[in-house]
Amino acid sequence: MKITEAITGRHSVRTYTGKALDDETIAKIRQYIDGLQAPFGVECRIEIIRAQTGKEPVKLGTYGFVKGASDF
């Protein structure tokens, strides 16, 4: 895929139902994260945050506001 195709095909979702991820899904995500290796030998940290904010918008970095998410 060309970079221009990736850019034009991008789809961003920032509004969610508020339903929390179940424990099995969280375990699968953590297992996947544990198998990752950062490039160039650098150390990285990936966290799952179970904020359970529901309908309250949350600002994540420079990505704008996320509405209705319970897990990040």
Can you describe this structure?
- This protein has a two-stranded antiparallel ribbon.
- It is built from two helices and two strands, in the order H-H-E-E.
- The protein has helices at 3-9, 23-34, and strands spanning 58-59, 65-66.
- It is extended, with a radius of gyration of 15 Å.
Question: What attributes characterize this protein structure?
Answer:
two-stranded antiparallel sheet, extended, single chain, 26% helix, mainly alpha
Mean pLDDT figure: 81
Radius of gyration: 15 Å
Poorly predicted parts: none
Describe the biggest sheet? Answer: 2 strands, antiparallel
Distance between the termini: 28 Å
Structural class: mainly alpha
- Sheet with most strands: strand arrangement: 1-2
Order of helices and strands: HHEE
* Helical stretch tally: 2
Tally of extended strands? Answer: 2
What overall form do the CA principal axes indicate? Answer: extended
The helix content is 25-40%
Question: How would you summarize what this structure contains?
Answer:
The protein is built from two helices and two strands, in the order H-H-E-E. It is mainly alpha-helical and 72 residues long. It has a two-stranded antiparallel sheet with strand order 1-2.
